[in-house]
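Hello forum,

I keep getting stuck at the same step: I have a sequence, I want structure tokens, and every attempt I make locally crashes halfway through. Rather than fight my setup again tonight, could one of you with a working pipeline run this one for me? It's a single chain of 214 residues.
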Amino acid sequence: MHQPIKWWTGLLPLALVWFLGNFLKTEIVEADLTNRSKAAIAAVSANLTDKPSMTVAGRDVTLSGKSSPPQILAADKTFGVRKVIAGAPLPVLGAADCQAELSAKVKNERIRFELASAKLADVALPLLNAIVSIAQRCKSGSIEVAGHTDSTGDAPGNLTLSKARAQSVVDYLVKRAVDPARISAIGYGDTRPVAPNTTEAGMAQNRRIEFTVK
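Reply #2:
Ran it on my machine without issues. Output:
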């Protein structure tokens, strides 16, 4: 005699989806989708001179620039992608405009990290995604990502931390299709303060990431 199939077994796939959606870090999902979508687009772009810039937010892929139907279809068929948004072509930025937009973006917002760590804080991701969109449009010059700290701790440790934080930002941008040949990380530690390290507000200003287009 066959045992009846339990009705609740049909809920297992739904439970798995719920678990992945709620407990798998968004950053991990975005990085994975970026890599696979980028590979899928590259596979159909071998004979094309124009390739779109790509940004992943959650499970949505936005293609900016000149995107062809095969490229859009390739991204749409990538497992895990929920929606592909083919936006209007964005203007390419010259070095001066790129510098202006990057500087404006971080003027009133700071890229945040976990305490005494080079690990990016989750609250930093929206700002980083906006920086990705700018960096992808910078087609001339190279971008230096500089890390700075306050004077807390010893100078060698601050130098190491500032370089590691800058590298974390570079790694995030590269994973989201910013050309690795055109972006680099450098750390200055506490050697270039922009405010006195005698107050908490001044120290907060000194803990920063800066972008220089060369």
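The radius of gyration is 21 Å. If your local run keeps crashing, start a new thread with the error log.
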